[in-house]
Design a protein that fits this description.
7-stranded mixed β-sheet, two-stranded antiparallel ribbon
Length: 313
């Protein structure tokens, strides 16, 4: 039995990028006059491009009155689609223009705080040492699956087991309670008076404070109460401004602890349930660019591990 195959849209049925740009600009301004000024075209040329686009689509994209234009429901839908297409064209063009013919891009995905406070320092000098490898770092605040991100290397926190990925452990996580040096009235504060202080909360780890005290066989109320933030970066900023006590991985605040901008509240360091990993797709195991960055990060890690982190707490 023969099955029907969908015939690709004929080339002549694709709108030109000029027509899409004219439509997008007119839709954004809701004015052909303002669109013409931005596009450095005449108003009649903008109107003609949009009219030809409507004719090709066999749809009205704008309601027209003598004094104004507005988008039709179809126009609103098409505007979002066209905007997305133009952004992709711009990104692809910029990426191609910014890279030499012989260069490769290393696509990296990681959490924002880890990126700013560990990964970027770790990659200092990489571009100079490897000028034909261009870093493209994407930050994702929420938990993510690296295999869904079209990524070469991912830096993640967890158990190291992700589908289709090979993972190399970087280091365990140890968290400490810290605050601004002027925040405390008692040094260290009595556990029985902990309700006098704000415990800053991380949205993705709602039981972090409970676990911190549980590891010390301490049972107190109120460990789930306090200002809540999406990222460690936000919690660190809040602690620096005296919002309260933050529970943060030592490696992410080494600079602040060394400078005295943040001080430890108690001596205890809580071991996290997970660790930090550098992961890459199994299919890229023999990739030159992946091997290069793995070697670079491993060398940085070996060097940085010579520092005794206990000495800064």
């Amino acid at each position: 039995m023969k099955t029907e195959t969908q015939t690709p849209l004929a080339f002549r049925r694709y709108p030109s990028t000029t027509a899409m740009q004219c439509f997008e600009t007119a839709a954004r301004h809701l004015s052909f006059t303002n669109a013409a000024q931005e596009m450095h075209m005449t108003q009649s040329a903008i109107s003609k491009q949009v009219a030809q686009l409507e004719e090709m689509l066999n749809l009205s994209l704008f309601y027209r009155t003598p004094h104004r234009i507005s988008l039709t429901p179809a126009g609103k839908t098409y505007y979002l689609e066209v905007l997305d297409i133009l952004k992709h064209i711009e990104a692809a063009t910029t990426s191609l223009m910014s890279n030499s013919d012989n260069s490769e891009v290393i696509k990296i995905v990681t959490h924002p705080t880890f990126c700013a406070r560990w990964l970027i320092p770790a990659l200092k000098g990489f571009s100079q040492a490897h000028p034909l490898l261009n870093l493209n770092i994407k930050e994702l605040a929420m938990p993510f699956f690296a295999e869904d991100q079209n990524v070469d290397v991912a830096f993640m926190y967890g158990d190291g087991i992700w589908g289709g990925m090979e993972s190399i452990k970087l280091f365990d996580e140890y968290t400490v309670a810290v605050c601004h040096p002027e925040y405390l009235t008692d040094k260290p504060p009595c556990i029985n008076h902990i309700d006098q202080y704000a415990l800053l909360q991380l949205s993705s780890r709602p039981s972090a404070w409970y676990e911190y005290f549980r590891q010390q066989d301490i049972s107190i109320d109120g460990t789930f109460v306090g200002p809540r933030f999406d990222t460690f970066n936000a919690i660190i900023s809040a602690a620096l401004l005296g919002y309260g006590i933050a529970l943060v991985p030592i490696r992410l605040i080494a600079t602040e602890l060394q400078s005295g901008a943040l001080v430890s509240v108690w001596d205890y360091k809580a071991k996290g349930r997970g660790a930090y990993y550098m992961s890459y797709p199994l299919s890229l195991g023999n990739s030159h660019k992946v091997k290069v960055i793995l070697e670079w990060v491993s060398a940085y890690l070996a060097k940085s591990n010579q520092q005794d982190l206990d000495s800064i707490v």
